[in-house]
């Protein structure tokens, strides 16, 4: 909207709102066709050991290059896919594709590396979620431990009891689970005890000021200690600078993810990154 434009401000604001609503609609329509048209693909961002910088796994991140709209970021389209339900088919495609990537890793002797996928609340509450994951693993011919599922705190709020049951079922199958964006929502350390997750991903928000803000550093330190006391490992998300990396090391985070280590990459480049980093 045009700022400080006197009496025109409201007019421009209204137009902007209309534009956003129109674009939302185009995105929602486009999402229905995106799989058929081969417009979706995954990028893979390596996670590493903060000391040796060895790759320990990858996070699969969804990308959409729409014929009509151009590239649309997941931050923009995932919430709309949740709204119109297309997240079900799209999410199923993501899980299948990530499992096939894990299969290709295994074919290169890298079956110890995990591949994480993000799962949104609406996927988790779906009746068929657990069988769907089991089937994707079976079809790709991978070990369950090669797949990791990332959920956020929001996913749990929707339907806590049901979600915990499903997470337990996934754990029983041998699938890894992590809690994503920890600290950005209604984080409660008390319910963490009841969650069958094995990894906590500390939100980028907390890593951002870790070098400049002593309170923030203490906070991250205490999250890490608390998580590790409960037997969880901790990932620091969004580590961008050398000094953040040093703080993250000091805090004894188990793993790092962020531009300082590597950006999300197409599969070919992810494989190259892997062969170029020594100790994997
Ligand atoms: P997320 O799961 O927390 O993923 C991490 C996000 O941080 C990714 O953004 C990644 O590109 C970005 N990132 C990683 N390191 C850095 C860094 O050092 N600096 C900065 N500035 N950013 C960094 P991306 O790919 O745009 O994805 C955004 C969110 O969209 C994800 O956050 C996740 O919540 C959601 N998402 C992505 N793919 C999927 C998917 O397949 N399914 C679902 N349900 N959600 C997805
Ligand atoms: Mg994630
Ligand atoms: Mg995250
Ligand atoms: Mg995030």
Automatic annotation (TrEMBL):
Keyword flag Metal-binding: no
Span of domain EAL: 24-278
Protein name: Phytochrome-like protein cph2
Gene name of the record: cph2_6
Natural source organism: Sporomusa sphaeroides DSM 2875
Alphabetical keyword list: Coiled coil
């Amino acid at each position: 909207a045009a700022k400080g434009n006197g009496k025109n401000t409201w007019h421009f604001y209204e137009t902007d709102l209309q534009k956003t609503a129109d674009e939302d609609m185009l995105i929602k329509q486009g999402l229905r066709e995106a799989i058929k048209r081969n417009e979706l693909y995954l990028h893979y961002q390596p996670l590493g050991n903060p000391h040796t910088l060895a790759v320990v796994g990858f996070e699969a991140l969804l990308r959409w290059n729409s014929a009509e709209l151009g590239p649309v970021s997941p931050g923009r389209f995932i919430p709309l896919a949740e709204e119109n339900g297309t997240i079900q088919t799209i999410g199923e495609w993501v899980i299948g594709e990530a499992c096939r990537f894990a299969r290709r890793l295994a074919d290169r002797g890298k079956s110890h590396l995990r591949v994480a996928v993000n799962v949104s609340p609406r996927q988790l509450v779906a009746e068929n979620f657990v069988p769907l994951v089991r089937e994707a693993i079976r079809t790709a011919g991978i070990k369950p431990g090669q797949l990791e599922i990332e959920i956020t705190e929001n996913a749990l709020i929707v339907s806590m009891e049901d979600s915990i049951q499903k997470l337990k079922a996934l754990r029983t199958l041998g699938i890894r689970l992590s809690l994503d964006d920890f600290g950005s929502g209604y984080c409660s350390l008390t319910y963490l005890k009841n969650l069958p997750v094995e990894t906590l991903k500390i939100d980028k928000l907390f890593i951002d000021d870790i070098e400049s803000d002593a309170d923030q550093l203490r906070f991250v330190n205490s999250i890490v200690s608390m998580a590790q006391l409960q037997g969880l490992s901790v990932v620091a998300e969004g580590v961008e600078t050398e000094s953040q990396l040093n703080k993250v090391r000091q805090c004894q985070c188990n793993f790092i993810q962020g531009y300082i280590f590597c950006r999300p990459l197409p599969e070919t480049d992810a494989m190259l990154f892997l062969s170029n980093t020594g100790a994997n």
